[in-house]
Amino acid sequence: MPAIELDRDTYGKVVFAARVMGCTPSEVVGRLVESWSTEEEAAGEADGVRVYAVYRSERVEGLFDPATRTLAVATGPLSGRAFPSPSAAAMAVIQALNPDRTTPNANGWSFWHVTRTGEELKSLRRRTSTM
Asked: Where are the domains of the chain?
């Protein structure tokens, strides 16, 4: 397998990002490179903004529509289901992955992260609310 060299500081940041994103360091680098692929990214952005959440060590991916502010879950037990808001989707994910939790309240704008940047979804809300 080909290898790349990273300085100690950069390697530490990649490892940290992997922990936050719930994936391997190799996947972090792969996602970064993939996000720079303009053709693929432009196709994905036309349908919505790719998002993810990590809950109880399980990564769930989705697609957020900034125009309608709806969120469709793409992976996990709720794959294929659309929700009227990021918070409704977050609460459904929590309930599906932790059915014993009696109050699955969640702020979807903080629960979901933009796949491309790793920022909380609320970073988009600030941008879309000014448009």
From this structure: 1-36, 47-129
